[in-house]
Amino acid sequence: KRDIKTLKKMPLGKKRAIFLDRDGIINKKAKEHDYIKNWGEFEFLPNVANVISKLNENFLVVVISNQGGVSRGMMTLDDVRVIHSNMSSELRKNNAIIDKIYVCPHYTKESCVCRKPKPGMILKAAKELNIDLSNSYMIGDSLIDIEAGKKAGCKTILLAPQNSILDILHFVN
Q1: Residue 145 catalytic?
Q2: CA 77, CA 99: separation in Å to the nearest integer?
Q3: Residue 58, number of CB atoms within 10 A of its CB
Q4: What SS3 state is found at 148?
Q5: Comparing C-alpha atoms, which of 2, 135, 6, 147 is closest to residue 64?
Q6: Strand, helix or coil at 48?
Q7: Which of 20, 28, 62, 156 could form an SS bridge with 146, CB 3.0 to 4.6 Å?
Q8: Catalytic: which of 3, 23, 78, 145?
Q9: Cα separation of 80 and 60, whole Å?
Q10: What is the DSSP letter of 24?
Q11: Known catalytic membership, residue 21
C-alpha cells in the first residue's frame, strides 16, 4: 500500500495515472513469438523500481499488458498472476508501487475489446480507479501501446530500445 504522505499529495477527485506496458518497459522482453511464462524467466530492466517510485509521488501506476500466451496454451492466468504478484512484491521492497494490473489473455485473432491496440483495459482502469485520462500517460515500447493510449485519450510516450525508462521522467509532469 502507498504511504500516507504520497496519498495526501494526490488531488481529490480524478487521479492522474501512468499506464505502463509490462514486457519491454518493466522487464526484459521474451524472444520474438515467445512469452515470459513464469517468474524464473522474468528479469527487471535497470532503474525500473527507482522510476516507478518517483512516478508514485504524483501518479497512480497501472500496468496494462497483453498476454496472448494464455489463450495459446503457453501459460495459464495463474502463471501470469504469480509473475505479477512477485513483480509487485519485489518492486514494493524498493518503495515502488503498482496500483493495479490489467491483463488481456486473448490472442491477436480473438475479437476482444481489451487487447491493445484497443483501449479496453485503459478505459476499465479509468472507470474503476477514477482516472483523468487527458492528464495521464500510456508508456510503451510498441506502436500498439501508443495507439491504445491515444484511443483512450491519454498522452503517450514510445520508449525506443535505445532509451532507458529513466528518460520518461523528463516527459511526464
Answers
A1: no
A2: 19
A3: 15
A4: helix
A5: 147
A6: helix
A7: 156
A8: 23
A9: 21
A10: T
A11: yes
